[in-house]
């Protein structure tokens, strides 16, 4: 049996309060034979908290005559992409934001897509633009991403925003999934400051930007970061040194086993894998990259799949869109 005691102090000054609010004391009581059971870091309660904050910011914008607007462009009929686009539109509407979904056939010409983006760049009711990836093979993804106005690039894929992430310039945007992971760590009482963070995966969407974010000289970062990938040698030797392990490699279900982590590690599982399951109406269940049942017995805290990082991604996209509207109002 294990017990967890969370103690939070509030100081009178903003900087002091920020540091203390995220100080966590974890006390585990039990016999030496009792296995440790990790606390769950669930995305939905944290996402709900952020949505509440966003509603207040949106209300202030509306008082000034501004309704944050998000335009999502989908080319083709990829089933997963269609689901993501619907979720983004629904999330926008639930927050009282303006939502525009633009669907184009798979053979939509590249030049027409670029002209469409030009029109959205010039539209004052649109503060955020997102082109759903992947795009069909005949469209150059790089041309599309650089065509989006960096001030409306709420996916944070434009080279200008990527550069701002690297140098710690907060005037740009941060990509939704890494941004959500950072929030989960801080709001769950597991801040990265002073920790060794090992990230499995070097993608432009998660691994690289997350590493850049967590290594910054910043109260929300200050981590020592190691990136591992498919060519890393002696992977388990490295993952066992992690205070915080973030798996975003997409190597398959239960790739990260219990012998690859040290006791007391904090685990963020970004993976999403379909595992055949005859008991499920869909014929499969979703599982992460981490062997959840085994690793949770050694970890201090761990995210479930589903229900962990997933709910955070869309709410952080909404947060970027609200920020874009605020920035344009200031200009």
- Tally the beta strands: 11
Strand order of the largest sheet: 1-11-8-7-5-6
Kindly estimate the percentage of residues that lie in beta strands according to DSSP: 5-15%
Specify Rg, calculated over alpha carbons.
21 Å
**CATH top level of the largest domain?**
Alpha Beta
Q: Average pLDDT value?
A: 90
Assembly classification: single chain
Overall structural domain count? 2
Element string (H = helix, E = strand): HEHEHEHEHHHEHEHEEEEHEH
**SSE-based structural type:** alpha/beta
The outline comes out as globular
Question: Which features does this protein show?
Answer:
Rossmann fold; three-stranded parallel β-sheet; globular; alpha/beta; 11 helices; 15% strand; 331 residues
């Amino acid at each position: 049996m294990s017990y967890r005691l969370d103690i939070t102090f509030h100081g009178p000054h903003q900087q002091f309060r920020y540091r203390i609010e995220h100080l966590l004391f974890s006390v585990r009581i039990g016999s030496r034979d009792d296995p440790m059971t990790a606390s769950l870091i669930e995305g939905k309660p944290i996402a709900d908290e952020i949505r509440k904050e966003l509603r207040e910011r949106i209300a202030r914008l509306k008082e000034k005559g501004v309704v944050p607007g998000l335009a999502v462009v989908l080319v083709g009929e990829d089933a997963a992409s269609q689901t993501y686009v619907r979720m983004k539109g629904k999330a926008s509407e639930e927050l009282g934001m303006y939502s525009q979904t633009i669907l184009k056939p798979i053979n939509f010409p590249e030049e027409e897509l670029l002209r469409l983006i030009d029109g959205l760049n010039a539209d004052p009711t649109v503060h955020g633009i997102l082109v759903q990836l992947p795009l069909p093979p005949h469209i150059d993804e790089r041309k599309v991403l650089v065509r989006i106005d960096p001030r409306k690039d709420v996916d944070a894929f434009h080279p200008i925003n990527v550069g701002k992430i690297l140098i710690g310039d907060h005037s740009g945007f941060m990509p939704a999934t890494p941004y959500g992971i950072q929030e989960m760590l801080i709001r769950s009482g597991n801040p990265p400051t002073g920790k060794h963070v090992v990230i499995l995966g070097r993608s432009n969407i998660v691994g690289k930007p997350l590493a850049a974010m967590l290594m910054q000289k910043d109260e929300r970062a200050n981590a020592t970061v190691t990136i591992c990938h498919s060519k890393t040698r002696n992977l388990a030797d490295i993952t066992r040194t992690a205070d915080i392990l973030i798996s975003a490699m997409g190597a398959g279900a239960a790739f990260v086993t219990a012998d690859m982590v040290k006791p007391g590690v904090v685990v963020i599982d970004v993976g999403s894998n379909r595992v055949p399951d005859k008991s499920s109406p869909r014929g499969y269940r979703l599982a992460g990259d981490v062997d959840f049942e085994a690793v949770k017995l050694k970890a201090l805290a761990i995210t479930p799949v589903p229900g962990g990082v997933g709910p955070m991604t869309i709410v952080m996209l909404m947060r970027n869109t609200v920020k874009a509207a605020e920035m344009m109002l200031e200009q």
